[in-house]
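Quick one:
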Amino acid sequence: MATHTSKGHTSPDITVAVTDMIQAIRSHNLERIKQCYEQATDTQRTAQLRHCFEAASSHSSNYEHYQNIAAHCISQHGLPAGVIAGINTTERVDFFMPALQAASAFNVTNHQGNTFLHCLFANPANPLPPFNYIRSLLLFERNESLAEALVIRNHQGFNALEVYLSFNPQHNALPQHELTAWLALCEALRTLNGVNNDNLTKVMAHLNGANMAGLSGNKHRLTLIASYYQVSVSSLSSMN
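Output:
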């Protein structure tokens, strides 16, 4: 949810847009809040939504209030592409989930073709990839379209799980509950015809290019790749 200029300073128009949103929120007038959001540019909307998330995180008693504001704004006037890369932790997914549901925005992509799932699974700051968290969300009927987001391919041709395999630098072995969830997500993708075996070569090429696919240090990652593409781990050694 970047909102800064190349020099690291917040631009004046963004500051004004956030200030206007703060004043609208203080007015307790939902129509004024939605109008403030509607009249903003995508970059300004990103900054306004970032303010809502940060305010909610800082004031737990008002968490649902800010969450509902974000949901009302996004459901009526859209999810700005600039927010997507910022929905990359479970805390941020939790905050924006009502908005994503109300706006049917699970499939919205940014300028790189990434959904929030791509960003969530690629984020190296997450101690563990939240596969079990997403699998749990998929079990709710209201989140049926979330499964379709798993299939969406970015501009590199990768879906969210393939982005994890290719770019997430955390190679620690997954605990059993996360491994079970990984296998369930792989099966969901196969059910949706979302697995493209032609991408195996591309995934391995990315890992080799980053010097991450050697058998000596990344056997677990190779096991995940093998489980996703349903090939043997030994067959991957020839691709190193």
